[in-house]
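Entries read sequence, tokenised fold; example below:

***
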Amino acid sequence: MSIIKVENVHKTFGSGDRAVKVLQGVDFTVEKGETLCILGGSGGGKSTLLKVMIGAHDATEGHVFIDGDDIVGMREKDLNKVRRKFGVLFQSGALLNSMTVGQNVGLPIGFHTKQAAETIDIMVKVKLEQVGLLDAKDRLPAEISGGMQKRAGLARAVALDPKIVFYDEPSAGLDPIATAVIDELINDFKTKMGMTNVVVTHVMESVRRIADKIVMLDKGKVILYGTLDDLLNSTDPKIVNFVNGEIDGQGGDDEAQRRFVSDLLM
């Protein structure tokens, strides 16, 4: 059963001669309890696709169904209801530095529910225990390592036991050991809790460990949608280069696109 369906999604920034087509007719589905990895070189559109899937950007054209609800063009009030069904682990971890790890994890629980403080505290401890961070509950983000910050961000993302978790480059800035720990947690949440995972990554070691299905983008278009075996056995030069770590030259420049869009909106 498909819990996510992306149907003919286009995303364009700007208009006329200055239009930048970042996504061009993207199609795929994600089955319940599956881990889908979104791959691609810099500027390929994977980060923009993730933002469209969580409703941070609205698609210019097409549909994104989350557990049966099409979020494209949806009102913010209705979109917030859909967002209760998923959590997001941002690339930076996005922890609030002025709050303890436990307070950060408790934020979505306090915001979305009417649970008493004592109940929230218990729920926070359970989530921190799941990611091996219970001892860090009363510490500030600056007092823990980068890998621990990512795990704290993951505990917050799953605080409400969502059906889906979206990950934006979860291993960015981490050493191989910390990366393997995050990958193991992704697999644990899938196998033990039945969560569906959508992971934007460029780390092939992670893809080999966690992926059930793969979407690979190049210049905003899907050039592969299939299994890990499909990826590894592909003869497409762009895919072969990616698998071998030779991704320079794919797509455009994400930072340049962001600056361009920013200039347009000024």
The first helix runs from residue 46 to 53. The radius of gyration is 19 Å.
